[in-house]
Design goal:
InterPro entries: Glyas_Bleomycin-R_OHBP_Dase. By secondary structure, the chain is α+β, with helices and mostly antiparallel strands. It contains four helices and eleven strands, in the order βαβββββαβαβββαβ.
Length: 184
């Protein structure tokens, strides 16, 4: 297994993600209680071709990415009630743990392998300038969904920059908004 530029293994867990009702309050709590940060925030996020359970999806979310050591933490605040992988989990379990993120350099092969295991493909999209993502509904086996993330050079550059900001972080500037023109 090779390591990605931010210290996590290719085809291993790189991210743990949580849905939250209030992104700003959650970032404060995760920083104060778990020492995660700094946070890089992407507002009004929606990809170019989101498909939720095979149908077009127009749900929008605010997300924040930060690191605790080499583990990336993602916080997701849905901004509407439109059908999504996030809303379906919130409806059943409320807010909290949502998915494990696994980066893979062999995205198509990894998707085929998870489909062959019988996991339902719940959501697909591309993250502009980064790569493709696919959520598999693994909740019958794992405690949440599984997100496969294409390990492109652009993804490694973005996540590497976020990780580098966390190394020796002194607590200043805990939230860093990414302008809409610089969205992932």
């Amino acid at each position: 297994m090779t390591l990605l530029t931010f210290g996590q293994p290719d085809d291993g867990i790189i991210q743990m993600a949580y849905t939250v009702p209030d992104l700003d309050a959650a970032m404060q709590s995760f920083t104060a209680d778990l020492h995660v940060g700094p946070w890089f925030v992407f507002r009004q996020l929606s990809g170019p071709n989101p498909l939720y359970r095979g149908a077009r999806s127009h749900a929008r979310n605010d997300i924040a990415l930060g690191f605790a050591g080499h583990m990336q933490i993602e916080l997701i605040q849905p901004l509407d009630d439109k059908p999504s992988v996030y809303q379906e989990t919130i409806a059943v379990n409320g807010h909290g743990f949502h998915h494990f993120g696994v980066a893979t350099r062999t995205f198509d092969r990894a998707c085929a392998a998870h489909s062959a295991k019988g996991y339902d493909l719940a959501f697909t999209d591309a993250v502009e300038g980064v790569g493709r993502i696919a959520y598999f509904d693994t909740r019958g086996v794992l405690p949440g969904m599984l997100e496969l993330i294409e390990a492109s050079s652009e993804l490694e550059a973005l996540f590497g920059m976020i990780h580098a900001a966390s190394v020796d972080w002194d607590g200043r500037c805990p939230v860093r908004e990414i302008p809409s023109g610089d969205r992932i």
